[in-house]
Amino acid sequence: EDQVTQSPEALRLQEGESSSLNCSYTVSGLRGLFWYRQDPGKGPEFLFTLYSAGEEKEKERLKATLTKKESFLHITAPKPEDSATYLCAVHAGGGADGLTFGKGTHLIIQP
Amino acid sequence: DAGVIQSPRHEVTEMGQEVTLRCKPISGHNSLFWYRQTMMRGLELLIYFNNNVPIDDSGMPEDRFSAKMPNASFSTLKIQPSEPRDSAVYFCASRAGGTNNQPQHFGDGTRLSIL
Questions:
Q1: Which of B89, B78, B77, B93 lies closest to B25 in space, CA to CA?
Q2: Per-residue pLDDT tens over the stretch B2-55
Q3: Which residue of B31, B91, B100 is in closest CB contact with A43?
Q4: How many CA atoms lie within 13 A of B67 on its CB side?
Q5: Which pLDDT tens digit goes with each residue over A51-85?
Q6: Which of A86, B31, B77, B115 has the fewest other C-beta atoms within 10 Å?
Q7: Which residues in chain A are closer than 8 Å to B43, comparing Cβ atoms?
Q8: Which of A42, A49, A101 is closest, CB to CB, to B108?
């Protein structure tokens, strides 16, 4: 069974304080790993897709990296508007076409 | 471009009533997914369609749940009869064709409360 575990569950940072969120996964044949951002009362908003170990993607203050067992979402010099829940999801092999999500990291950036 | 549109945004109803949730996917997308989100279990896939055909409904919790996609621009998720444990946020997502590693794009969900 595909599993995705995110840590920490919650993280509070000061504005400008860089950190990383972790996503560990166990899947039978990874076809893609996705990062989403979710704001309160909204649906998940797509950020990145990573396909193979060693791959990196960047968008503004966010950088996502991927190894064979985990992915990191690095946030550099965050601002209060980066506060959200960040979700990691995997698209696995075996014919299944939906995403398996982790429970997310609730990130709060204090001014 | 319009994103995925879900209605209603909020639904409060009494146990035993029929509930119908609606979804309009992004135009041109040929895959549609229904998810449920709870604090305990996070986001879980219920069912998905490719080209309006249900492909995998193994995530549908019980026979009380059913989903249809009569055409490329509309899908419904129905619960009959509803129970308090069905209370959750239900999301619809759509995906473009081509490689199935295209990202899924989500609507803003329907928050369902069953009293």
A1: B93
A2: 899 999 999 999 999 999 999 999 999 999 999 999 999 999 999 999 999 998
A3: B91
A4: 30
A5: 999 999 999 999 999 999 999 999 999 999 999 99
A6: B115
A7: 44, 87, 89, 99, 101
A8: A42
Q: How much is the pLDDT for A87?
A: 98
Chain B residue numbers with beta carbons less than 8 Å from the beta carbon of A96 are 56
Structure tokens at A10: 């919650």
Give the separation between CA A88 and CA B74, rounded to whole angstroms: 27
- State the CB neighbour count (10 A cutoff) for residue B109: 24
Would you place residue A95 in the very low, low, confident or very high pLDDT band (cuts 50, 70, 90)?
low
**Are the C-beta atoms of residues B7 and B111 closer than 8 Å to each other?**
no
Q: Which of B43, B50, B105, B112 has the most A C-beta neighbours within 10 Å, making it the best mutation to test the interface with A?
A: B43
Q: Classify residue B115 by its DSSP letter.
A: -
Indicate whether B97 pLDDT > 80.
Answer: no
Whether residue A4 contacts residue A100, with contact meaning beta carbons closer than 8 Å, is answered with yes
Tell me how close the Cα of A62 comes to any Cα of chain B, in angstroms.
18
Give the minimum alpha-carbon distance from B13 to chain A in angstroms, rounded to a whole number: 20
pLDDT of residue B112: 98
**Given CB atoms, is B25 within the 8 Å cutoff of chain A?**
no
Q: Is the pLDDT of residue A40 over 90?
A: yes
